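sorry to bug you again but im stuck and you know this stuff better than me. theres a chain ive been looking at and ive put its sequence and its fold in token form underneath. id like you to explain what the token line says about the fold, in plain words if possible. anything you notice is useful, everything is just below.
___
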Amino acid sequence: MPPVAVFDTNVLFSGVAWKGKPFQCVELARAGVVEGVTCRELLDELAGKLQSKLSFTAEQTLQTTADLLTFLRVVTITGQLKAVHADPDDDKVLECAVAAGATHIVTGYRRHLLPLGSFQGIAIVSAADFLAVRAVP
């Protein structure tokens, strides 16, 4: 059974915008080596960042999101989980992972998520660390 990974918005953004380790992680999901999971809230956050930081048009944003949806499973979250008091926006990543039955959260967020190390048995790792434990195709 392949690992189930939630890619934080910063990993999806970097994977879309640049090559490198976040891109390689996303491509593992595209190839079916890992099961990638997301939620509407993370996709909405990504869309906003693509438009504000990369000046994506609405059409480019829609195309990018549609592409991700060809290989990422979408789960529904309620917004009820409250675990990261310093940054409540991170709660949606944790809740997405719990709802998905994820084995990993892949993030570049060093302030609040990575220092946790794990949450309810879900490993929280950087893109580099995730690739180190997965065989890159």
